[in-house]
C-alpha cells in the first residue's frame, strides 16, 4: 500500500507520497496535544469565527478542490463541487450552533445544590477516512471536534492523498493553527501505534467492515472511545400506492450518484408486485441513458469507479451473483473507454443463498426484489447484516413513516432521497457500525460529559446523603 493519486479516467499516476515517519507521527500528536491544551483557554466565539473562515476558504477554492477530488477518485465534477459546498455548509452550521449545543445542561436532582453537565474536550482524536467523499468525510469529524476543542490527526485513504493534503492546507490557510488538524500518510501499523498513544483519546473511522474491525480492535485494546461509520445495503421500499413518477425519478439517481459508491446508496430495491414491472422498466431505461466519459467534463453523467481494484472486485461480485442463480436485467457489458468504468447493472432473482443477498456491492449495481405485501417488504429489508439507511415510498406519507419506523436502520427517509445535512444525525446499527456523526449527537461523540454538583454546604439530612454516610 502506498499513497498515490491515480486518475481513474486516464489511469495515469498523478502524484505519489511517502509514508510518514514515526517521528513525524509523534510530532503531530505532540502538536495536537499542545493545541488541545491551548484550546481550553480559547473562546468558542474565536473558533466559530475561524470555522466560518474555513467555510469561506472552501468556497473560494471550490473549483480547485473539485478538480483535485475528481482526479483523485473519479467522481463527476458537478458532484465534487457539491461536496465542497456541503463541507462549507457543515462548517457554517457547527460554527453557528456549537456554543448552544455545548452549553452546560442543568439536571433536576434531589441532591443538595445544583447539578450541571459540562461538555469538555477529550484530547487528540485520530480519524481514519475513506475515499468516496474525500472532503465531506473529514469535515463530519473536523467541524464538531474543532468546536469542542479536540485536535485531530487524519489518516485518509491511500487513493485520495491529494484531497486530504489540500483540505488540511485550506484549514490552515483559513487561520486555524497548525497542529489542530494534521494529515499524515500513515501505515496500518502506525494507526495502531497512534491509537495506543496516551494523548489520543478518541478514534473515528468511516469505511468498510474490514477496516472498522481492525481499527475498533486496536482501539478496544487501549480502551479508547470509537465511532464506526461502516457499510450499508440500504433498502428502497416501494409500496403499491407510491407515486411512481417520483419513484422512477429518484430510484436511478440514488443508485448511480457518486457512481454508486455511497454507503447510503439504495442497493436493494424492494418493490410491491403491483408496480414491479413499471419500476423495473423505468430503472432499466434510466440506467441506459447515462453517458460515460471524462468526469471533468460537465456533460458526462457516468463516472469511472475509483480504482481498478474496486472495479475488479465489483465485477467479481456480479459474476458470483449470476453464477449463484441471479438474473441479469441490464448492464454487465464493457464500456469502450480506458478508465475504470462499470456499466450500470440490474440484477433480480437474488435468493438468500446468493452471496449478493448479504454482500455490499459498492458501485453501480442494483438488486431488485418483488414482494407481495408490506410485511414481506419490511421482513426482507430487515433480513440484512447491515442497518445504515433506507427509503420508503408510500402514497400516504404518514403510513410511509409507520413503515419506516419498522426498519432496522439508523436513518430512513420517506418519499424522498436521503440527504446528509449537519443538523441530521448520521449513522447506523448492526454491521453498519455505531455512534453518530453530525447533529447534536455527533457534537457529543468525543466529549467529556462532566457532572458538577455544587452545594452551598454539606447536608447529611438529604436522602441522597445516606449513601455517602452509610
Ligand atoms: P476501507 O478499506 O475500510 O478504508 C477506509 C479507511 O480505513 C481508509 O483510510 C483505509 O486506509 C483505512 N483502513 C483500512 N484498513 C485499515 C487497518 N487495518 N488499519 C488502519 N486503517 C485501515 O473502506 P473502503 O472499502 O475503501 O470504503 C468503502 C466502505 O466505506 C464501504 O463499505 C462504505 O459503505 C463505507 N462507508 C461508510 C460510510 C458511513 O458513513 N457509514 C461512509 C462512506 C463509506 P487505506 O486506504 O490505506 O487502505
TrEMBL record:
InterPro entries: Ald_DH/histidinol_DH (IPR016161), Ald_DH_C (IPR016163), Ald_DH_CS_GLU (IPR029510), Ald_DH_N (IPR016162), Aldehyde_DH_dom (IPR015590), ALDH_GabD1-like (IPR044148), GABD/Sad-like (IPR047110). This is Putative succinate-semialdehyde dehydrogenase. Coiled coil: none annotated. GO terms for molecular function: aldehyde dehydrogenase [NAD(P)+] activity; succinate-semialdehyde dehydrogenase (NAD+) activity; succinate-semialdehyde dehydrogenase (NADP+) activity. Its EC number is 1.2.1.79. Keywords: NADP, Oxidoreductase. Pfam families: Aldedh (PF00171). It comes from Bifidobacterium minimum. Residues 3-449 form the Aldehyde dehydrogenase domain.
Amino acid at each position: 500500500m502506498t499513497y498515490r493519486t491515480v486518475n481513474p479516467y486516464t489511469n495515469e499516476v498523478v502524484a505519489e507520497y511517502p509514508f510518514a515517519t514515526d517521528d513525524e507521527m509523534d510530532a503531530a500528536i505532540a502538536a495536537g496535544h499542545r493545541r488541545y491544551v491551548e484550546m481550553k483557554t480559547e473562546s468558542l466565539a474565536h473558533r466559530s469565527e475561524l470555522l466560518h473562515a474555513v467555510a469561506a476558504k472552501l468556497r473560494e477554492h471550490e473549483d480547485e478542490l473539485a478538480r483535485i477530488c475528481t482526479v483523485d477518485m473519479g467522481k463527476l465534477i458537478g458532484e465534487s463541487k457539491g461536496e465542497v459546498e456541503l463541507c462549507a455548509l457543515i462548517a457554517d452550521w457547527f460554527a453557528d450552533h456549537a456554543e448552544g449545543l455545548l452549553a452546560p445542561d442543568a439536571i433536576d436532582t434531589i441532591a443538595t445544590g445544583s447539578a450541571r453537565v459540562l461538555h469538555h474536550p477529550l484530547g487528540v482524536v485520530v480519524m481514519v477516512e475513506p475515499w468516496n467523499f474525500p472532503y465531506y468525510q473529514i469535515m463530519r469529524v473536523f467541524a464538531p471536534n474543532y468546536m469542542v476543542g479536540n485536535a485531530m490527526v487524519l489518516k485518509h485513504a491511500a487513493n485520495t492523498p491529494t484531497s486530504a493534503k489540500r483540505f488540511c492546507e485550506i484549514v490552515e490557510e483559513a487561520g486555524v493553527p497548525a497542529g489542530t488538524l494534521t494529515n499524515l500518510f500513515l501505515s496500518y501499523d502506525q494507526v495502531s501505534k497512534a491509537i495506543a498513544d496516551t494523548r489520543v483519546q478518541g478514534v473515528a473511522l468511516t469505511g468498510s467492515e474490514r477496516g472498522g474491525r481492525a481499527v475498533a480492535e486496536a482501539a478496544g485494546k487501549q480502551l479508547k472511545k470509537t465511532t464506526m461509520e461502516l457499510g450499508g445495503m440500504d433498502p428502497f421500499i416501494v409500496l403499491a400506492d407510491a407515486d411512481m413518477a417520483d419513484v422512477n425519478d429518484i430510484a436511478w439517481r440514488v443508485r448511480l450518484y457518486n457512481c454508486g459508491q455511497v454507503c447510503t446508496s439504495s442497493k436493494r430495491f424492494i418493490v410491491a408486485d403491483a408496480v414491479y414491472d413499471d419500476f423495473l422498466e423505468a430503472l432499466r431505461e434510466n440506467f441506459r441513458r447515462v453517458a460515460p466519459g471524462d468526469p471533468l467534463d460537465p456533460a458526462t453523467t457516468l463516472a469511472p469507479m475509483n480504482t481498478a481494484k474496486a472495479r475488479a472486485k465489483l465485477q467479481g461480485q456480479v459474476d458470483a451473483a449470476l453464477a449463484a442463480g441471479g438474473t441479469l436485467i441490464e448492464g454487465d457489458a464493457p464500456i469502450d473507454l480506458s478508465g475504470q468504468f462499470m456499466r450500470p447493472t440490474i440484477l433480480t432473482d437474488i435468493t438468500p443463498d446468493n452471496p449478493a443477498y448479504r454482500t455490499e456491492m459498492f458501485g453501480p449495481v442494483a438488486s431488485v426484489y418483488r414482494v407481495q405485501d408490506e410485511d414481506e417488504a419490511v421482513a426482507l429489508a430487515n433480513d440484512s447484516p447491515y442497518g445504515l439507511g433506507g427509503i420508503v415510498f408510500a402514497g400516504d406519507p404518514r403510513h410511509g413513516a409507520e413503515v419506516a419506523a419498522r426498519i432496522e436502520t439508523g436513518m430512513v427517509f420517506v418519499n424522498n432521497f436521503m440527504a446528509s445535512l449537519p443538523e441530521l444525525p448520521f449513522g447506523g446499527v448492526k454491521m453498519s457500525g455505531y455512534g453518530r456523526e453530525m447533529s447534536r449527537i455527533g457534537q457529543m461523540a468525543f466529549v467529556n460529559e462532566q457532572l458538577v454538583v455544587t452545594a452551598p454546604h454539606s447536608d447529611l439530612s438529604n436522602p441522597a446523603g445516606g449513601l455517602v454516610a452509610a
